[in-house]
Amino acid sequence: MERQRSFSLKSTRFLAFSLTISSSLIFLTLFSIWVIKSTPSIHQETHFHLNQLALNLSPKPITLETLTGFSKNSSSKNVKDLFLIDALNKPENSTLFSPPPDEAYKADDLDDNSDSTTGQESAPAPSLEEVEVHSNERIEEKKIEAASTQKIELPNDEQITKKKIEAPSVEKIEVTSNEQIKKKKSGAASAKKIEVTRDKRIEEKRLRNCDITKGRWVYDESYPLYTNASCPLIDEGFDCMSNGRLDKDYMKWKWQPQDCDIPRFNATKMLDLIRGKRLIFVGDSLNRNQWESMLCMLMGAIRDPKKVYETHGRRITKEKGDYSFKFVDYKCTVEYYASHFLVHESKARVGKKRVQTLRIDSIDRGSSRWRGADILIFNTAHWWTHYKTKAGINYYQEGNLVHPQLDVSAAFRRALMTWASWVDKRINLKKTRVFFRNSAPSHFRGGQWNSGGHCREATQPLNATSSFIYPDKNGMVEEIIKQMKTPVTLLNITRLSDYRIDGHPSMYGTKPGSRYSANIQDCSHWCLPGVPDTWNELLYFHLLPKEEDNLL
Ligand SMILES: *[C@@H]1O[C@H](CO)[C@@H](O)[C@H](O)[C@H]1NC(C)=O
Ligand SMILES: *[C@@H]1O[C@H](CO)[C@@H](O)[C@H](O)[C@H]1NC(C)=O
Ligand SMILES: *[C@@H]1O[C@H](CO)[C@@H](O)[C@H](O)[C@H]1NC(C)=O
Ligand SMILES: *[C@@H]1O[C@H](CO)[C@@H](O)[C@H](O)[C@H]1NC(C)=O
Ligand SMILES: *[C@@H]1O[C@H](CO)[C@@H](O)[C@H](O)[C@H]1NC(C)=O
Ligand SMILES: *[C@@H]1O[C@H](CO)[C@@H](O)[C@H](O)[C@H]1NC(C)=O
């Protein structure tokens, strides 16, 4: 009895004790969750604050008139006809990039200038340039050699036409050989049906079977898929034809992989594929280049242009970073978000000064707007140069630490890892398909973008790129993508674009007579129609349902 009582006493005590412990544990957990949850909001507030500051410090935004391809008044009529102006969805400020305070940066800010070549107040876009200039320097010399051989041959018109005539016949031969492949494929397909893990297998097989990076450009009269007249959305910076470029061959080349065909872009089908979805491009001005190309290619399927409108009620201008175009009948949007580095451009105090920094450990703060995408196409590369990153001195930031000095490629890798873990954490695998487009080559001859480099004389693709060197940054991208949980499809366009020295705006990235066009050529971006259309055909190829395999 006694024992029993003491036992029950003991057990009660024990019970009470453990209850206290566990309830304090629960309290502690709840408390820490609260703390964690509330911290980000504090963070956000700080960021917001910083932004406001940045805005106040930043130079006055350049007016629409100077920046837009079409001036406010002149062509406003047809533009208005085209786009139903919607109410602003969000404050314009929220989309503004805080421009770096540094004058030196301003001069080549890609998105604000390079994109926006029109600028009377700022130098044109060249922007990306030196990235490649660095890596291309070695290549450059060889290319000049190659180019000069080409030059000797080019002036002869007869030879050119001959080549053109020859080209189709070569194609024909390939078609027959492809038929054989087709037969083999359809045979294999019926067997495949039995297999269970087909989707992944087929995808792998297709990629294994066909290295689309190996091939050549063939002249094809049936291109381009749109013109400056059929697509009113081409930015002045890419609208070479309207800016006075006379040669037209650059629009007529089709990329022909060695071992397979890329299906011709079918705008109706593409719109069907993205019906009710959001197709989003995130990256620097070269992704903007590709996004505009996509818009133009899709416009081809729209009879009534009024059924395409900018959901923020703006025209395409160089000034603003973000756009969303809606294709009403398909309830889909095709969007672009400017993000030069994919990670967060920030500010921090170093010594007594507030300096521009790049938070390589933190995703771009615009990311919440991309997250809901169904198809996401990223790029970054061209801004990762010593020139644009203050040579890495007091520029890269992780946590509170601003690295006194960090190598650009180390920083690039860390930023990519930040991006990769964001994708792995935040992207819904079931909903969203992720692509990464690797770097596009530039072709400055005889100098750099800001020292007289040029590409205007090129009107034909390079014959061979034997000297091609796959940039290190692309290697890093591939490495990191491989380690990701999310399958990311690489749009591997570097090499095929490397042939296309003829595809850049050169001096036709601005209206004739513009102050800059004569001195500074744009050999980084691409004319539209042009090379980015091919990038989009590749994207389309990847998006096509797998059954299409049999039809190829
Ligand atoms: C442009 O339009 C504004 C009003 O929208 C008008 O005041 C101005 O005179 C116009 N400028 C030209 C050059 O037509
Ligand atoms: C943008 O920010 C400035 C300064 O912070 C403010 O005065 C202005 O009203 C804002 N514009 C919009 C459209 O929110
Ligand atoms: C281009 O290729 C053709 C065929 O391979 C060759 O005959 C021609 O010499 C090449 N031209 C240049 C400039 O390399
Ligand atoms: C398209 O380019 C041509 C020059 O090749 C030009 O005459 C025409 O005005 C341009 N069209 C548009 C709509 O800008
Ligand atoms: C494009 O796709 C649509 C819809 O799938 C189809 O009806 C049409 O025939 C295709 N056009 C071409 C030229 O293949
Ligand atoms: C991308 O293309 C380059 C050049 O053709 C090639 O070296 C690289 O292996 C390709 N990457 C992938 C993942 O296919």
TrEMBL record:
It comes from the Eukaryota. This is Uncharacterized protein. The lineage of its organism: Eukaryota, Viridiplantae, Streptophyta, Embryophyta, Tracheophyta.
